[in-house]
Design brief:
The protein is mainly alpha-helical. The chain has 12 helices and no strands. Helix 3 crosses helix 4, helix 7 runs antiparallel to helix 10 and helix 10 crosses helix 11. The relative contact order is 0.13.
Length: 264
């Protein structure tokens, strides 16, 4: 609760940090926010060409990838950005007294804005290339729930990694390697839902969903593409793990926050 209170109390600093992040990313770019749409389109195009040409993926493959890729990118951009959020603002940490969690939170809000822009692209693609079962339905009410769970996961992991990177500087390099593993270990280019071959091996199936992104990405895909509610088992596991990581992340950040100025 203190984290939310501090965010509101120091919202002026937070809004300035978000504005600074956005200006730094799009300064002197003639296309501006259109780059937020172009990047995932290029990645989906490249992946789809490779998968359709060499692995025989069907015509629905690009849409399936896009629906999972956009929320995955939101997580990875936050994960990577939060890892450097404290060390990238040394002058602020040493000279100004404010809650240090404002720094990783500003990174998350910046990428949440990018996510909102890219989500418009997802909706447009789904309207142009709809799945037979993806008509508007009551299952869309799951969308804010899924988003809240993912934001909770991002905040927990972001605070955890931001604090640890101040203490152990090699955490940043571990993050880079972990993101590669996470991409191939998450259901972006394939599915691990109840209809997949993995479901035939219950132990592996549940171990796989210890990766909270797996349950969250499958939930996005279930609601948006297939027009059905997410699996209560896998999404429930993702929610539980997100809450646990949130508690660990906040507790770890608060524990080490007072030492940041000395460590950097």
């Amino acid at each position: 609760m203190q984290t939310f209170t501090d965010i509101y109390k120091y919202r002026f600093i937070l809004s300035n940090l978000v504005g600074k992040e956005l200006k730094a990313q799009y300064r002197n770019m003639s296309m501006g926010f259109l780059w937020a749409l172009l990047n995932p389109l290029v990645m989906v195009t490249v992946l789809s060409l490779a998968w359709t040409m060499f692995l025989g993926a069907d015509a629905s493959f690009p849409v399936l990838v896009l629906v999972a890729l956009i929320p995955y990118n939101f997580f990875t951009y936050c994960f990577n950005g939060c890892s450097a959020s404290i060390l990238g603002n040394v002058s602020l940490v040493k000279k100004i007294r404010f809650p240090r969690q404002i720094l990783p939170i500003s990174v998350i809000i910046t990428h949440l804005i990018h996510f909102a822009i890219q989500f418009v692209l997802v909706i447009a693609v789904l309207l142009i290339f709809p799945h037979p079962g993806s008509a508007l339905s009551i299952h869309l009410l799951w969308l804010p729930v899924i988003l809240v769970v993912q934001i909770g996961l991002v905040v927990g992991v972001g605070l955890l990694i931001a604090g640890l990177n101040v203490i152990y500087r090699d955490v940043q390099y571990i993050v880079e390697s972990l993101l590669v593993v996470l991409f191939w270990g998450s259901p972006i280019l394939w599915t691990a839902g109840p209809e997949s071959n993995l479901a035939a091996y219950p132990i592996l199936y549940h171990l796989y969903y210890l990766n909270p992104l797996a349950g969250i990405l499958e939930a996005w895909r279930s609601v948006l593409y297939y027009g059905r509610s997410p699996s209560l088992v896998t999404f429930g596991m993702a929610t539980g793990i997100a809450i646990l990581l949130g508690i660990i992340g906040v507790a770890s950040f608060w524990k080490h926050e007072r030492d940041f100025a000395d460590l950097i």
